[in-house]
Amino acid sequence: MKSIYILSFLLIFTVFSATAQAKQGSPKAAGDTTTVKYLNEIVVSALRINIPLREIPAAISVVSPRQLTSLTKTIAADDALRLVPGVRIDNGTGGSRVHVYMRGQGVLTESGFRGIGVFIDGISINSPGGFAPDLYDVDWETVKTVEVVKGLAASMYGASATGGIINITTKDGGDKPVNSSLFTSAGSNGFWKILGQVDGTSKNVNYRVSYSHMQGHGYRQHQAYMGDNFSEKLTWTPSSKLKITQLLTYTNYFNQNSEGINLGRYDTVGHTAANTDAVPYNEFHKTQRLTGATTIKYDFTQNQDILVKGFMRMTNYQETSNNGDDYKPTINPGVSAQYNLHFGKENLYNHLSLGVDYQSMTMNEHMFAVPDEDHINHNRVDSYWSQDIFDINNVLISQIIRQRSTGVFLIDKLDISKKLFAILNLRYDNVYNRLDSSTVSDNKTFSKPTFRLGLAYDLAKAANIYASYGTGFLVPTEDELYNNPVKYGGFNSLIKPSTSMGGEIGVRGEVGKSLYYDVTGFSINSKDEFYRYSVPGRGNNTAFFGNMGESKRWGVEAFVSYAPLDFLRFDVAYTYSHFQYTSPDSVSGHWIPQCPEHMLTAEASVKFLKHFTATLNAQYQSKWCIQVDDSIYNHFNENGKIRSSWVKGFTVINANLNYAWKLGNLKGDLGFFCKNMLDEQYFGFTEPNNGPDYNSFQPAPGREFFVSLRLRL
Q: At 463, which CATH number?
């Protein structure tokens, strides 16, 4: 029913705006049109070779610059990827810390997410075990495009990408030798951000350098965040055959952790309440990360080339809580090489790629104990940015975690005719893990081949049909391995990799010059599903992971973009997800946690008076469950009160008004943004818990207002 309200609201808005625009006359300036162009113009690089969209047998969403620069504070992925079906992003902080789920993968991780590969300018941010700790390295104001590949089509990236991949490409420098730009925004809950950038092109060198700082107090107690991003990108093209790109990023992100609360605290204190442990223990996360990378592409001949990538990443991570003060310095180097060969005749042309990926990681973890609550001064934390800690001499954890992963792959794209295209991916992965401490040494190795076969038939411009079938391989991450439920120390011997197989079929196309659509149906069967649970009496070790059994996931993802007039556009993204366990019997028929059955984002954008653009956006999610445990799947007892384990859905309405102008060589735009216009009270993130509370809820922000200014010279 809420979906009907959303669409009706957008329809009334756009009809009113279109009527007003028609009275004034439509703008005819060059570049002012919103004509839809997809199949014939978009070339996707996320599948490791550059392929026109119409030739790809996979569900792929491409986020345009237009979508990236509207309805966003430019600090988190939830706004940037709002129009991508099949992807759910939880933001329980209002800052940059998010949880990402894709076709049911990524759920229930203790922090960050797994099963989804993330690449920034071709460089992976995942650990060798497939864990993506965060997206702090991404300054969304510097992003040019995002390609999202969903499901097992991402199998060419191996054990870290069974759910899909997010391929982020940042902006290059401008055409002039020197360009400069400034972006600033500010708004509710003490938020502000400023970014400065210098870029340009001089002979055969293109460059971009940017730095940004942002911070906010948060809408809940003890939820302040602060971040710095430095990004440098330089591309040198000394000849027509050689292209070298050098990348350097530095991230410094701090966020207080107000944690989830139980429903009793939510009812009595309200949506701004922090967990009762958060303030006395000054719980926070702090991440400092430096990444350097180089990519080299060399064309031997017109039909042969090689692409080599190398990176080195150093991270200092600290997390303090009532469980302890945890330090995890990490070194993570990696390299990949890919050889590409193109040969054949016009009606049977072959694109063959052979490659190898390798990376390693060394984490030297130390966790110090903290005193119990009775020995902590509750008034000690009195600042948004306090980094006071309460370490005592007792060392809870002192260990070294080592990982390395090696993957070899083959990609064969065959152009059977001008309308029929086939892709075959073959890959073999080997992931090695080792733990060493003063009391125990342990190691585990996981390996498996995977494949995927797809066909795309370009029947007509209005009907591009595609289908694929493949397998996936998901290994436990470092956190899931070294949290041992059997004893302190050593690896978790009860967990093993999860495997999956499935397929998808879809159709996409352009109708005239104004309508683009993409509809995909998919089905995935998984074995040894990961799940999260707690062990009573384990104190500082609170989250453990195991294999649940089997599941069946099927659903439909749809995206429609319609621009009936040159000043009017509609975008709608809808996802239907039917994700349930099929074994063991104790959970058969239970829905996979954190996965709503329905998700809908609808957006309307209208240009008027030549310089103004108004955008109205509505986001709806249906209810979802939190728990796997059969005894508390539907309801639980919280201190004598019966509570539901289902989280009710929500509808959020957002609006943006933008004014674009030009004064000589200076270009600019001024934006006004209202987020959650109707002040909807809902939960931005939930996770299972055990004990007298069972479930944990993080309330989302209410109504917020922001203003932004971009200047380009």
A: 2.40.170.20
